[in-house]
Amino acid sequence: MHGHGYTQPAKQPPSPGYLVSLRVLFVTLSVLSCGFLTWVMLLRLAVVTRRSVDWGLFVAVLATDILSVVLIGTEPGDEIHTPGGYTGLVLLLGTLVAVIAYYIAADVRHFQQQQYGGWAPTPTPGYGYPQQPAPPYTATTVPQQTAPPPPNHAPPPARIDQVRAELDELSDYLRRHDGHGGTGHQGGT
Q1: What is the mean pLDDT of each run of 10 residues along the chain (189 residues)?
Q2: Angstrom distance (rounded) from CA 49 to CA 93
C-alpha cells in the first residue's frame, strides 16, 4: 500500500538532441585521432557521472594510450616492423573500440536514470499482448453481484442423456454392420 512513489529529478536533463550531438562529437574526435584521444570520452563520462569506476577507467585508458604511443614511437622509420609496434597498434585500436562501446552505453544509462529517477520506463504495449487498463481502485467500492447464486440442486443432465442415446445408436449401427460381413472386416474371406 505504501510504495516509494515517483521521484522528481533534481534538475532537468539536457535535451536528447544535445546529448546525441555530444556523443557523436566525442566518438568522432576519438576515431579521427586513430584512438589517441580515446581518454577524452572517459574524462567527460567521469565528470558527468562522478562515479569512481569511471574515474578509474579514465586513468587506465589514459595509461594505455600513453603506453601505445610509446610502443609505436619506438619504431624506427615510418612503418611498423617490430612486435612492440604491432602491440601498441592493437592496444590503441582495441582500446578505441572498447571505450566507444562503454562510453555510449554508460552515458545513455546515466541520463536515462537521471530522467526516470533510477527506474527504467515500462515497456509500451504493441508487442505481445495488448495492455489492459487497470481497474480503478476506490476504498468505498463494494463488489456487486450481477447474477443470483446458483441453486443447491443441479438441473437434470440433459447432455449426458443425449450422449448416451448417440452411443446406443452407434452401438446398434456397428452390430448391424458386423452382422452383414460375418467377420467384422470389410471384404473378409
Answers
A1: 58 79 92 92 92 94 93 83 86 94 91 68 53 56 60 67 88 82 51
A2: 25
